[in-house]
From TrEMBL:
<keyword id="KW-0998">Cell outer membrane</keyword>
<dbReference type="GO" id="GO:0046930">
    <property type="term" value="C:pore complex"/>
</dbReference>
<keyword id="KW-0813">Transport</keyword>
<comment type="function">
    <text>Forms passive diffusion pores that allow small molecular weight hydrophilic materials across the outer membrane.</text>
</comment>
<dbReference type="GO" id="GO:0015288">
    <property type="term" value="F:porin activity"/>
</dbReference>
<protein>
    <recommendedName>
        <fullName>Porin</fullName>
    </recommendedName>
</protein>
<keyword id="KW-1134">Transmembrane beta strand</keyword>
<keyword id="KW-0406">Ion transport</keyword>
<keyword id="KW-0626">Porin</keyword>
<keyword id="KW-0472">Membrane</keyword>
<keyword id="KW-0812">Transmembrane</keyword>
<keyword id="KW-0732">Signal</keyword>
<dbReference type="Pfam" id="PF02530">
    <property type="entry name" value="Porin_2"/>
</dbReference>
<dbReference type="InterPro" id="IPR003684">
    <property type="entry name" value="Porin_alphabac"/>
</dbReference>
<comment type="similarity">
    <text>Belongs to the alphaproteobacteria porin family.</text>
</comment>
<dbReference type="GO" id="GO:0009279">
    <property type="term" value="C:cell outer membrane"/>
</dbReference>
<dbReference type="GO" id="GO:0006811">
    <property type="term" value="P:monoatomic ion transport"/>
</dbReference>
Length: 522
């Protein structure tokens, strides 16, 4: 009996042990999966980041484009080898680009905390800067040199695509990276001075003068007050060093006619930045469109007259700019049609008119019936001076605008244009064009003035066969209206390669660019 009882107890204990082991092996009930939820607080496309109260939206585009008749992906044939318009420049530029932006927003007791990042990954045709056929060899950049023996020519460090770094290379750009909180914007964003459409009242072409345009963002600390009814006002301190300095030129460093035909009126002597640009803006947004007024102050801080501190320096001189912008919507010509226009005046703050992508120095060559070739050159710095003297501001004014008409939901066309003029002061005109001046004293010069104008007109047609996929063709014509005249013989060429010392006719120049683009937004 004892034996039977022992066997039963042992069997029961074994079963309990086995049952416990099996229970231990059973799966534990998993936590509920946190599905991504739609965030409807800030518009379409936002979702809650799982486990947080922060909403996020991803966006961007992929773009493929080609610019014809230019060695630049953003501009016309304005200067350098591109402006030479000879065999040492590309006549098209191709680009592929992916844009990625990340927008996050969190509601707090102080208001919404927002962060925004916009980066671009680009592959662009490298700028071709040939040096000609010296020694029977052509270089892709200015790297032709003698080897250590001093006898045999060799290419040193030349690159087929020096801009983007090679066949598997490319470039990364950070357009915007900022925080917004309690009315403050801190980081890299579009300047508060700019019109909402920046460089693009209706176009794709980047190079319009006639207004400001920090399309790739500018570092800033800004406070914006919202008064309701669509009325806002902003005050901003913005970094001037990257995009807003057109130059402070010492005319005493000019190299005569060779420098001027290369759009170099002297040596650039910008000193270290001492103050950000100060910007104020008032804007009214309504159903009919918007109106915006902007002002800016720009400190022109110059280095020394010479190579050492003992040579002295000019005093700082503040420049300023003012801009008005107007957008008119719901016009009778059709649903979605819009007119965007803006006008600007600057005094010692040239970049608010000749914006960074448009440039402010130009040297363009063409044909001539009375000389070897023709050349048109112009430059619009912020200020000029001579050694021992004070800064004199350059004044500019301009406007730009566009009218966009929608033919139907799939097609639209815009006509656009811009005009900008630069005017130098009496000191600069006397130095360059007075009796015995740097330019007026050159044999063959019949008319002399550093003033100039730059105008562009264009037309663009867009086709959107399916939502967020657009094909466009943008044709623009730019004219440099410079104020020099005559036929001169150069002693040197300061600028593009392969231009010989010869007779050149001083006259206006034209450039036509076609920009073809396919873009998929997402």
């Amino acid at each position: 009996m004892k034996l039977v009882k022992s066997l039963l107890l042992g069997s029961a204990a074994g079963l309990i042990a086995v049952g416990g082991a099996q229970a231990a092996d059973l799966p534990v009930k998993a936590k509920a999966v946190e599905y991504v939820k739609i965030c409807s607080l800030y518009g379409a496309g936002f979702y809650y980041i799982p486990g947080t109260d922060t909403c996020i939206k991803l966006g961007g585009y992929l773009r493929a484009e080609v610019a014809l008749n230019t060695n630049s992906d953003i501009n016309w044939q304005s200067s350098g080898n591109n402006g030479a318009r000879n065999r040492l420049t590309n006549y098209y530029t191709m680009r592929a680009r992916e844009d990625l932006n990340i927008d996050t927003r969190t509601a707090t007791e102080y208001g919404v905390v927002r962060t925004f990042f916009d980066g671009v990954f680009s592959w662009t045709t490298g700028n071709y800067n040939g040096t000609g056929s010296a020694f029977g060899t052509t270089a892709y950049s200015s790297t032709l040199a003698l080897n250590t023996s001093g006898a045999t020519p060799a290419l040193v460090g030349s690159s087929i695509n020096p801009t983007d770094g090679g066949t598997s290379g490319g470039s990364l750009g950070v357009y915007y990276a900022f925080i917004q909180f309690a009315g403050f914007t801190m980081g890299k964003a579009v300047s508060q001075f700019d019109a909402p459409w920046t460089n693009y009242p209706g176009n794709n072409f980047d190079g319009l003068a006639g207004g400001s345009g920090t399309v790739t963002g500018i570092n800033q600390f800004t406070y914006t007050a919202d008064f309701g009814q669509g009325v806002t006002a902003s005050f901003s301190a913005e970094d001037a060093t990257a995009y807003m300095q057109a130059g402070n030129l010492n005319l005493s460093g000019a190299t005569g006619l060779a420098g001027v035909t290369g759009a170099a009126y002297g040596s650039n002597a910008i000193g270290g930045s001492r103050s950000p640009n100060l910007v104020g803006m008032v804007r009214v947004d309504q159903a009919w469109g918007l109106f915006q007024a902007s002002v800016a102050a720009h400190d022109n801080h110059v280095a020394y007259y010479g190579a050492t501190e003992a040579t002295g320096h000019p005093d700082d001189k503040w420049g300023w700019a003012v801009q008005l912008a107007l957008s008119i919507k719901n016009i009778p010509t059709g649903a979605g049609d819009v007119i965007n226009i803006s006008g600007v005046y600057t005094d010692g703050a040239t970049r608010y008119n000749f914006q960074n992508l448009a440039g402010s120095s130009f040297a363009l060559y063409g044909s001539s019936n009375v000389a070897y070739a023709s050349v048109g050159a112009a430059s619009a710095p912020d200020t000029v001076y001579v050694t021992g003297g004070q800064q004199e501001t350059v004044k500019t004014w301009g406007f730009r605008g566009a009218y966009t008409h929608n033919w139907d939901p799939y097609w639209n066309t815009a006509i656009y244009g811009s005009y900008a003029q630069a005017q130098f002061g009496s000191g600069a005109k006397t130095f360059l064009c007075g009796p015995g001046g740097l330019i007026s004293g050159v044999a063959g010069v019949t008319s002399c003035s550093p003033d100039f104008a730059l105008g562009t007109v264009g037309v663009i047609t867009r086709w959107t066969p399916v939502k967020n996929l657009t094909f466009s063709a943008d044709l623009s014509w730019t004219r440099l209206d410079q104020k020099y005249a005559g036929v001169v013989t150069t002693t040197a060429i300061n600028g593009p390669a392969a231009k010989p010392i010869a007779s050149y006719e001083l006259r206006d120049q034209d450039s036509v660019v076609m920009l073809l683009r396919a873009q998929r937004n997402w």
